[in-house]
Amino acid sequence: MSQTISESRIRNLKESLELSKISFRSEVRLSVLSSFKIGGICPLIVEPENTEQVLEVISIFKKSELPWKILGGGSNLLISDHPDNFVTLRLSGTFKKFDSFEEGRFRIGAATNTTPTFRQISQAGFRGVEFLSTIPGWTGGAVIQNAGCYGGELFDLIQTVEFLRNDEVLIKKPNEIEHGYRFTEFLNRKDSIILGIEILLEKGNLEEIEESLKDKRERRNSSQPENKKSAGSVFKNPKILKEDGKEIKAWELIDRAGLRGAFKGGAQISPEHCNFIVNVGAATASDVNYLVELVLDKVFQQSGILLKREIEYFGDIP
Ligand SMILES: Cc1cc2nc3c(=O)[nH]c(=O)nc-3n(C[C@H](O)[C@H](O)[C@H](O)COP(=O)(O)OP(=O)(O)OC[C@H]3O[C@@H](n4cnc5c(N)ncnc54)[C@H](O)[C@@H]3O)c2cc1C
């Protein structure tokens, strides 16, 4: 584990940010920015408002040799109980907007909230993004892991992704970016900042779109623990076929391993959907991690299948 960042380094960083007129917040409890409602105090959150400011922030981070991480909507993360050995970058300002240029072409900022954004686009009569209106988080985070559900995934819709890599703003088409099921090259490289995407949509029948929005909302409400603090599915489905030719789901393996409802501290494997771990009390990141390890171990013992985590860890989790 790396060391807590010293107060003097944070002070110097704040001075540089103030000089460049870049917003920041000190001593932020990250649990408030996490759908799990787990996470300790981070010394600094830096909130650049446009691409120029992002470039400036990265240059300041480099000069000060400070470790940093980028946070979106915090809905696919288990955040450390002690996130004090890095600073956090969180896009703001222009990244929170989306614009429509010509009929059906949208530019969507990386810090837009996916649910209201894609609901609004759907309700304006454009079809094909209804599934995204049920996924929590921000668009940048959705790009990172090619978020999807109900047979659709974000990369099916993307025309271009705009991102920052090696101090350069790049615009690439999906076929130039490695991606797959809940995976993109961004996940592995960890060297890119997603700034926004462009999508191109067709007009549809508004009644059918409304029906599809309702159907997806109902499917979600009926299959997932409602209003619970979680980060969604903890494990990826292993993409292995059963004897009946259907795909085996991660939740089935966890259930078969006898772990439905298992507890550790304030964390529980959801009795309603056992691929969810829920924070039912004052769960810590360590509590959740204990259950993650338990699932990996027991499922492997029971089925010989090694599940892979879908949620990511943000900071050190013992
Ligand atoms: C109840 C619930 C249901 C869910 N259902 C689904 C589902 O059906 N399908 C699905 O795919 N997911 C689902 N999720 C998971 C989550 O909502 C998605 O993965 C979401 O797209 C994550 O976005 P985020 O902004 O919250 O990312 P975060 O959790 O903030 O971050 C995720 C990763 O992306 C990185 N990141 C974030 N923004 C940027 C950026 N601008 N540039 C570079 N890196 C960035 C972070 O560093 C981190 O590595 C669910 C979550 C919950 C809580």
Summarize the helices and strands and which ones pair or pack.
Elements: H1 7-19, E1 24-29, E2 41-46, H2 51-64, E3 68-70, E4 77-79, E5 87-89, E6 98-100, E7 105-109, H3 114-123, E8 126-127, H4 139-144, E9 148-149, E10 152-153, E11 158-165, E12 168-172, E13 179-180, E14 183-184, H5 185-189, E15 192-200, E16 202-203, H6 206-223, H7 250-256, E17 263-264, E18 267-269, E19 277-279, H8 285-303, E20 312-314
Parallel strand pairs: 2-5, 3-5, 4-20
Antiparallel strand pairs: 1-2, 6-7, 7-15, 8-16, 9-10, 11-12, 11-15, 13-14, 17-18, 18-19
Helix pairs in contact: 1-2
The site of flavin-adenine dinucleotide has 32 residues, from strand 3, helix 4, strand 9 and strand 15.
Write a brief caption for the model.
With 318 residues, this protein is α+β, with helices and mostly antiparallel strands. It has eight helices and 20 strands.
Task: Give a structural overview.
This protein has 318 residues and is α+β, with helices and mostly antiparallel strands. Helices cover 29% and strands 23% of the residues. The chain has 8 helices and 20 strands. The strands form 7 sheets. A 5-stranded antiparallel β-sheet has the order 6-7-15-11-12. A 4-stranded mixed β-sheet has the order 1-2-5-3, covered by helices on one side. β18 (267-269) and β19 form a beta hairpin. α1 runs antiparallel to α2. The longest helix has 19 residues, at 285-303. The protein is globular. The mean pLDDT is 95. The structure holds flavin-adenine dinucleotide. The site of flavin-adenine dinucleotide has 32 residues, from β3, α4, β9 and β15.
